[in-house]
Amino acid sequence: MAIPDLIGSSERFQAVLDDVRVVAGVGCSVLLQGETGTGKEVIAHAIHDSSSRQTGPFVGLNCAAIPAALLESELFGHEKGAFTGAIAQTIGRFQAAHGGTLFLDEIGDLPLELQPKLLRVLQDQQYERLGSTRTLRADVRVIAATNQDLSRMVEQKTFRADLYYRLSVFPISLPPLRKRKEDIPSLVHYFNRRFSRQMGKSIDQVPDGVMDILKAHHWPGNIRELQNFIERSVIVTQGPVLSPRITELNLLMQAVVSAPPQTLSDAERAHILGILKETNWTVGGPDGAAARLGVPRTTLIGRMQKLGISSRPSGLRLASSRNASQLLAS
Ligand SMILES: Nc1ncnc2c1ncn2[C@@H]1O[C@H](COP(=O)(O)OP(=O)(O)OP(=O)(O)O)[C@@H](O)[C@H]1O
Ligand SMILES: [Mg+2]
Question: Are the CB atoms for 302 and 290 separated by under 8 Å?
Answer without folding.
Answer: no
